[in-house]
Amino acid sequence: MNRKKWSLLLAIVFAMGIFLAACGDDTSGEGEKSKGDNTQQSDDRGDDNSDAVLADDQSLTVNIKTEPPSLHPGKASDNTSLAVLSQVFEGLTRLGPDGEPQKAMASDIDISDDKKTYTFTIRDGATWSNGDPITAQTFADSWKWVLNPDSPDTDYAYRLYPIKGAEAAKNGEGSLDDVGITVKDDKTLVVELNNPIPYFLELTASYTYYPVNQNVAKKNKDWDANAGEDYVTNGPFLLDTWKHKNQIVLKKNPDYWDSENVHLETITMEMVDDENTAKQMYDNGKLDWIGSPFDSIPLAAIPPMKQDGSLNISPMAGTYYYSFNTEMEPFTNKNIRKAFALAINRKGIVENITKGDQVPGMALVPTAVWEGNKDGYFKDNDVEKAKEYLEKGLDELGLDKLPTVKLSYNTNEAHAAIAQAVQDMWKESLDVDVQLNNEEWNVYLDTLSEGNYQVGRMGWTASFFLDPIYFLEVFETVGGNNYTNWESDEYASLLEESRKETDETAREELLREAEQLFMDEMPIAPIYFYTNIYAHKDYVKDVSVGKLGTVQFKWGYIAEH
């Protein structure tokens, strides 16, 4: 794209930021499920100052943008719900400040030599917030509830499928009694896996693996709908109040097993949808934290915040991409898909639009998981090669020229700016007219799910564990989060083989081969790899921000100021 067009686009983006800031009192709207300079490069934690003195008032206020769709660990499937659940519940393990799993509800973990059997010892004195004991049976019953075919809205049940017999039970092809979850006694839980997997302890730290007080849940099927005596938890914080579509307040759990290391007394979670309004609240001292992983910082605010050193940027395991509908022409043709993918100037996008140190993406698996993917599988902005693919694709389709193509995206300032830039790139490089289509998130998801699109913006972040298969398995079969309508028996076979491979080097080779096959087919056009972009007040200390795009408040505190 020439300099004149870039300048025009940037002027539009800047103007959008000014306009939205002026209209900052509008906080209505729905949220999304997933979403050099003087910049402070975070080491995955908030500023740490061992000499800092704790303030008398240990209260933190953040913005989670929207109402969490579900605060039931077995039903949740979005990042907003995760932001709350990870503070009020705890699994057998918890991800520590370094991103590694550490013992939590389990005081001891024994792994068999073949790495297929895990024996967890439940921590002494582990109790629910209502005083009920937490036992091995608690975890067994909670996991089997998710796997019960009759349990509704359990979209992430597949995260339990590494457990022997779990998938068959969920599909109604096996019995819950045959699932590899055995309670030896109140303190001992034995879990048998189908195959050894290197990330199982990360899974046991994720919300689908959290326990639920079954006694309460059986008495009140809507126990998770509101704060109150029935919302029983076991994490470092309690759900004190929940004003729907307005505010959530968490309080420190005095009965938490590690409460002496929890310093925050109150966490207030506001629900302000407009990011410019949230920025104004942050500037006025009404928020202590802005940006990842709860909401976004306005594009226009990023450069000055980088300049004054108030912005934190850290790696995040996520990929921003354009999905091609491989069942709708001209994207039924692999060479056409390649032409469109190679004709994107990713470096220009991350340097001139997003400006958050995102990494240009020429692969599916992000560099936060595979560092070697920085160069990817093709050259960025390779217009000459794109034209070669275009010519070949047009010939195979029997076309002289591409018809008008529709590029869809969900309502968002950055998505709109990127789409406008790509529209110009494709026109200039491929001589194709691109129509932009903007829809609200829920409508947009329906559009993609029904296949009523040609090219659509999407993103995928690793919310559970850091492993290449987290990204590769999205496209194993059509459906779920795979909106491309592309699937391959060979690709699926490589992933299945990798699940059985015990040698780490051999397993990586299988996954690399799968990604190579995927990128050769190009059902998506990766654009960039995400980063966490956030700011917090100087007095906010030791808040852990990880590559998974999650935040831990367990170790955080407010310093005297």
Automatic annotation (TrEMBL):
Gene Ontology biological-process entries: peptide transport
Topology versus the membrane: Lipid-anchor
Localization in the cell: Cell membrane
Gene3D superfamilies in the cross-refs: Dipeptide-binding Protein, Domain 1, Dipeptide-binding Protein, Domain 3, Periplasmic binding protein-like II
PROSITE patterns according to UniProt: PROKAR_LIPOPROTEIN
Family: Belongs to the bacterial solute-binding protein 5 family.
Protein name (database record): Peptide ABC transporter substrate-binding protein
Organism: Lentibacillus cibarius
